[in-house]
Every structure is written in C-alpha cells, then in structure tokens.
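Quick question, first post here. What does this chain look like in 3D?
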Amino acid sequence: MRNRIVVKVGSNALTRQDGRLDVTRMSSIVDQIAWLRQNDYQVILVSSGAVACGRRELQVEHSLDSVEQRQLFSALGQAKLIGLYYDLFREYHIHVGQVLTMKENFRPGEQYENQRACMRVMLENGVLPIVNENDTVSVTELMFTDNDELSGLIAQMTEADTLVMLSNIDGIYTGSPDDPSSELIKEVKPGTDLSHFIQAEKSSQGRGGMQSKYITATKIQQGGIRVIIANGKRENILINLIADKKNTPHTEFLPYKEQVG
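> Answer (accepted):
Ran it through. Tokens below.
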C-alpha cells in the first residue's frame, strides 16, 4: 500500500538565529527523508528558505523595495537551495526535481492538470519533487499566503496520506509555548475549534506562523488527509513520527475519514 507524505520545511526550521541557512539541519532532514524512502514512503518536499539564502549571498548597496528584494533574493537563493539539496540527496542516489509554482497553477484547468501530471510522472520514476513558490514572478495578489498554504494544496493535488509541517515549535499549545503551564495539544478531531489558542504572530524568517498552519491543517483534514505539526529542529523528528509517534511531541489533525463510517 502506498504511503505518500508531503513534508513542508519552514524557514525557521532551516535557519539559525542569525538568519543564515543551517546546513547541518538541512542535511539532517535529507537523511530522514532518505530513511522514509528506504521504508517505502513516497515523499514530496515543500521547502522554504530561498529568500533567506539569497539575502546572505549578496550585499546590495542601494535601496530596494519589498518586491524587488523578494525577487532578487529568491532568484539567488533558490539556485543555492536546490544545489544544496541536489548534493545532499545525491549521496543517497536520490534524484531530485525542482518544481516552482504559483497560486494560479492551482485553479481548475490546463495548468493544474499539467502540474499534477508532472508530479505524478516524477513520483512514478522515483524522483523526489522539491516544491517552492516562484517568488521571482509571484507578487501581491499572485502570492500564496505562505508555504503552509502551498503544502496543503500540494497534498491535495497529489492525494497524499499525510502532510507534515515542520517549524521551530512542537505544535499548538493551550497558551504561549514559552509559558510552562501551557500544554501541547496532541490530537485534533475534525470540527474542533482551536482558534482561541492560536497566536497571530508570524514567524521571524518566513511569512507564516501557527495561525497559518492551523488554517491549512483544518482545511486539509476535512479532505481526508492527516496533518502533523512538529518541530523540525528536533533530532530525527520525521523518523520518530513514524517509529515512535506516541512519545514524539507534535500536534496531529485526524483526517475526517477516520471520524465517519
């Protein structure tokens, strides 16, 4: 039986406190994805980090507006990011393919079908798709809210069994994660309202935050896909979510199909 997992890695899971790319963490995630594939899981990787990569590559001496910065740094950073993934996965003899997409590609029609066909042929031939938003042309209304939204759409498009969203936090808490009295919410059934627990702050390196993950998770679980929010900075987090899920901190949104029938 096919086990297809979409793994979304956020900027905060891939960067250090100074905003630089954490290559050691990136290598660890690659090691874990290789383990998943060796254990008969199909994996699609949705990876943030391009803008953070590009910002550290070039010092611009004149002012750029926000759109220009995003276009310039994402163009630089995406080349570096995919090159690093290529080298790391090559050690496991895993072929990778880059998929840069835009929100309009998910509207019903030819572009959607072409993108889905591309993903399908890659998976059928053992190629690991690495997906990111095409930030060089996606601006203002053309942008996804963030890669949380993108990962959810990819999970639906590829009919994945599970979506794992990795950030720098273990999941959704009953209060501030920094408050010792807050408890990690381990399981969320369809229809459960957790909005009063969600803080609206965005992440320091990316565009998303826990609110974005919560919105994506509730939508995707209704479509019959399991959603897990976990801490990408924990050692072997992806492996432990498979091998020792009960003892691994995370928040799991149970798919709707498990609650009916």
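The chain has one domain: 3-259.
The CA atoms of residues 175 and 182 lie 5 Å apart.
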